[in-house]
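Session log. Operator J.P. requested a structure for one protein chain; no other inputs attached. Running the standard single-chain path with token output.
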Amino acid sequence: MVTYFLRRLLLVIPTLWAIITLNFFIVQIAPGGPVDQALANIQFGQTSVIPGGSDNAPGRASLNGGNPGDSQYRGARGLDPEVIKEITQRYGFDKPLWQRYVEMLWNYVRFDFGDSLFRSASVIQLIKESLPVSISLGLWSTLIIYLVSIPLGIKKAVRNGSAFDVWSSTFIIVGYSVPAFLFGIILIVLFAGGSYLDWFPLRGLTSPQFDSLPWYGKIIDYLWHIALPVLATVIGGFATLTMLTKNAFLDEVRKQYVVTARAKGLDERRILYHHVFRNAMLLVIAGFPATFISMFFTSSVLIEVMFSLNGLGLLGYDATIQRDYPVMFGTLYIFTLTGLLMNILSDLTYTLVDPRIDFEGR
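Structure written below.
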């Protein structure tokens, strides 16, 4: 088993390399890079000099000079060639593509993601500031989904075919069909100062006076802020886990060992929770890491944007809009590495829940 997991850990390296390489070259050929962004800002008067330059430096824009045919950048029209050259050097685009690629790989091996192009902070610092928000959102969402879906799935299996089973399935399917962002909009309109009630805050994870609150006040304030984002995130997460739990229990109760236990006169509740539960929960419990990382990745972006939560999703979204390449690739690297490690953890959880599973032998 140790050999299997060591082999899986070694496979993380080429997988991570392939994903980063593919995205690097796709982004490089896409139009509208950071140099274009900076030149466009100068062209339209948002800034007159390059960041960090001075009034006497050659980075001052000349709107009447320059030859637009001298530059490959679309935003360079009418600008002094010295401005274009200075900005290109500042963002590192004066180097050949292969050199930028090799330097990126070497830096990423050392977890050196560089500095943001448009923020006065390093990528590592921005990720550290954003990570707790995304972890909070993903962890609470996953826990609530499990706490609701497992008992509901068991009850649906016990009462299979009843009116409760039919009506609960209807509500679950309806909830699954509603996108998280649409449900978030509904929550904002109803409860966050939209057209009706103003019960919950719309921005941030804590209040401005959070540090001055007592410990119990901090807990209440945190839960008050996280309530709507978590509710919007979990609305579509109940269906899959509930039906998985129900089907796992239905599959187990039809097996021979359950028939034998009933023939011996054992209590139905004891059969259900002492014999069936462990085998039926194998896939459900072992899938916790995968479920968490799924909520962490797929549901965080739009919810963080809507509720102004400074998490990794919003950080990556803003970096993509601004073409902030170091932040884009830094968040992609963290997301990919976390996902790959969580997949290994998921396999490890299988073996802990049921020691009979042997991935290496298989």
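Operator note: Residues 177 and 288 are 22 Å apart (CA to CA).
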